[in-house]
Amino acid sequence: MAAATLRNGLRDASAGAICWVLSAAYCLSFAALIFTGPLTPFLATGVAVTFLSAAVGAGIVAWRSSFPFAIGGPDNATSAVVAALVAGLMANLGAAGGATGHPLGAALILMGLVTAATGLLLSGLGLTRAGRAVRFVPYPVIGGFMGATGVVMILGAAQVIADHRFNLANIALFGGGEVLAKLAAGAAVAVVLELLLLRWRNVLILPGVLAAAIVVTHLLFRARGIPLAEAQTHGWMFHPSPAAALSSPWALSELENFPWGALPNLAGEFLAVMFVTTISVLLNSTGIEIATKREASVDRELRAVGLANLVSGALGGLVSCLTLSRTILNREIGAAGRASGFTVAGLSAGMLIVDPGFLGYVPKFALGGLLFCTGGRLVLRWLVHSARRLLPLEYLSLLVIAAMIINFGFVAGMAIGIVIGCSTFAFSAARVSVIKFGFDGTEYRSALDRSAGDMALLARHGGEIQGMALQSYLFFGSASRLQEKVKQLLATCHDCRSLLFDFRLVTGLDSSASYSFSQIKDAADEAGAQMVLT
User: Fold this and answer.
1) Domain count, the chain
2) What's the pLDDT tens digit per position in 390-413?
3) What pLDDT does residue 188 have?
4) What is the spatial distance between Cα 114 and Cα 178, in angstroms, rounded to a whole number?
5) Range of 28's domain?
6) What is the rounded CA–CA span in Å between residue 253 and residue 105?
7) How far is residue 158's CA from residue 29's CA, in Å, rounded to a whole number?
8) Is the same domain home to 352 and 209?
9) 379 and 441 in one domain?
10) What pTM, to 2 d.p., does this model score?
11) Three-state secondary structure call for residue 533
């Protein structure tokens, strides 16, 4: 038995080591995505923070998840929204002339705040067993957010490669020959990576493509006689950074210098991080459940990821999530126990003592190409392939929400998403008739035994009784349609004397429906009919 336990442990550790290779590649790309622009000189710190977050996320998720083979850590969608949040903070610092403090300290505090807040939300949802409530979010709203996140990641990849933020004001900067060459190189990496991933399912493809891009780039530079320092000066390579000394971001001096007044302007992106992380936990746990045929406990996953983010937030780390691709890959390799996740955590923690000087040998377009590929996959899944699964109105809603987020930010996207989601639901629900069937006194009678004379009387005057059996929930949309139907009935049935409504199958009604019935009563009185509710 001891030998079997050792054998299983080695199997899980080996699977975890393989998954860590993939996780490390993602961590480098996420660090480059977030620590760009004014934060580029602090990329080494960004790499350390990302691997620290990966260690915390992988360790706690492996410990607390309902999937013993689960792999946690920074994920693509959440990292893209965090990058947008940090970019917004840097824009506020730039507008203030940098007078509000050091950009690195401010960025770490903001990441710690949003990570801790996300952890509180997830833990609260898990502890109150409210995880299933997330399923009530309309699919177009989820799709719009996730699709826009993919676009944000693609734009972030362009900034990583070109050192310029992609927007209308800077569009001319992307027309230069050297910038276009860098973007083309990144696109080539993305295309090669996507083609290989479509053809084969192998954990070594992603790090292999990145390694090949690094080797080929250095060979080309050497063949053309371009020294490494010149390539770094021209922006093809990252500049080497000194070793990062991680410390708590909650120092009093940093807190005093933090631009607290900028937080209201960042509220949309702040809430978007929390929303996207919550949705990602739900979608990823469902995806793992389907792929592995093992039932998931959504509330337990929320508690596990929530705890990981609380710890990571206290350390100034990034938002972590239950990852989909790495968890499924870990299971397919053969992992069955929690040792695989602990292995990922241990190897990620080990990266904190590695000299970050290796970043000076990494081409920017290699990591940018990985971001292009990841963002493109999100766009294809949520903005393109959704067209086959949604009704035209729902798909149009999804595109509008995504466009609003891309052009006006997550606050506008949230607002329009709520409005469109409610409007679409009301429109769709109103199309379902609340009239189960209509009847009159000649064809729909009680079970009481009657004499032949009474039956003849009902046959002659039964048309004076008109009724409707109602169903479902009555609200402003469906009640309005009911009111129109009643008006048509009274206009065509001039001898109606009793208008009966059967509420046995009605589950409820709102105030607008009550007002509609008062208008129906007025119409019935005007037609000389008595309204009866039963």
Assistant:
1) 2
2) 888 889 989 998 998 888 877 777
3) 94
4) 37
5) 2-401
6) 10
7) 12
8) yes
9) no
10) 0.77
11) strand
